[in-house]
Write a structure and sequence with these properties.
Layout: E1 12-14, E2 17-19, E3 26-30, H1 38-51, E4 55-59, H2 63-76, E5 83-87, H3 95-98, E6 104-107, H4 109-114, H5 121-134, E7 138-144, H6 150-156, H7 160-177, E8 183-188, H8 192-205, E9 211-213, H9 223-236, E10 243-244, H10 256-270, E11 286-289, H11 300-311, E12 321-325, H12 331-334, E13 340-344, E14 348-353, E15 356-362, H13 366-381
Parallel strand pairs: 3-4, 3-10, 4-5, 5-6, 6-7, 7-8, 8-9, 9-10, 11-12, 12-13
Antiparallel strand pairs: 1-2, 13-14, 14-15
Helix pairs in contact: 1-2, 1-10, 6-7, 7-8, 8-9, 9-10
Length: 386
Amino acid sequence: MALARRKPTRAVRVGALTIGGGAPIAVQSMAATRTQDIEATVRQVELLEAAGADLIRIAVDSAKDVEALAEVRARTRDIGRAALSVDLQENYRLAATVAPHVDKIRYNPGHLYHHERDKSVHDKVAFIAEIAERFDVALRVGVNCGSVDPEKTAKFGADDVGAMVESALEHARILDDLGFHRYVVSLKDSDWRKVVEGNRRFVAARPDVPLHLGVTEAGMPPDGIIKTRIAFEQLLSEGIGDTIRVSLTVPFEDKGQEIAAGREIIADIEAGRFRSVPANFGEGLNIISCPSCSRVENEAFIELARDVKTMAQYAKDYAVTIAIMGCRVNGPGETDDADIGLWCGPLGVNLKRGDTVIGHFPYDAVLAQTHALLDTVIAERGLAKA
């Protein structure tokens, strides 16, 4: 089976790029550098442009980030064709100052819930939509299973996919009611099965909305590419998906691999070349790691992720999940569901077992602590090989 005829969605203009409406599937990536490191971020944009990115996303979380973003935009505006998107992180009010410098703004409904709790979600979305309309900017409603707002989590209980889908549907309704239709939705998780299920459920309710596909925190190559490929092969072959990202934990200079992997997956599906997947893929040891972005405060996180993967290979046949996250924004929440979690700060790493913090350790000491914890988890749970 080759790439199916795309499901008809509305067309969303993002700068000179069109997402949905029958346009070619757009391939995007995200700058991994700290936004305030202007030289490094400009270099990252140049590398992703050279790799053929259709859209490049940069994160901002402070006024200084916005100042740096303006400089990055000024220095890269004429180097290529890629549209520029911004990730608002937790401060939605920055939309007013970032909008003049970008083509699209992404916000996370879960983060929006926690900021300025005295204001309604509707009013916060209305603020973002008004800014987007004023500055001719598109929006992405970016929902992650690991950061859905507590009300949805409480309502759906163990059905975290249902909570994610309901959050996306709610925000789509709000934007529609506001008369703002220039938006894309994404529903992501580190588990490719939940990505497939969530997107299918959303499309069943809102087939008109363009979708951005991705498996978040997919990890390092080749596993991260395989997880993403499985999800994309199922969804794209059903005509679901208008823009994609392959999220990989790789050195900053190698972020172009995300674009290359995305293009290869699309080309293979279009040609009917589907990769065989072992029946037991995803069983045993599961290493989750984020793809790195400007929120990462110490690039040692990338090397740590590689070291953890190497160290843990002795446990490859045991059903244990280890999550290595690179920042304090997503790190705490998105390691809660792992058996062992590491979320990395500027000087050290918080080691967790489930949602309990074991301790804070220097980068050069946490690997041994993780090894010992992995032994403990296997022994205490009496785990059998997968």
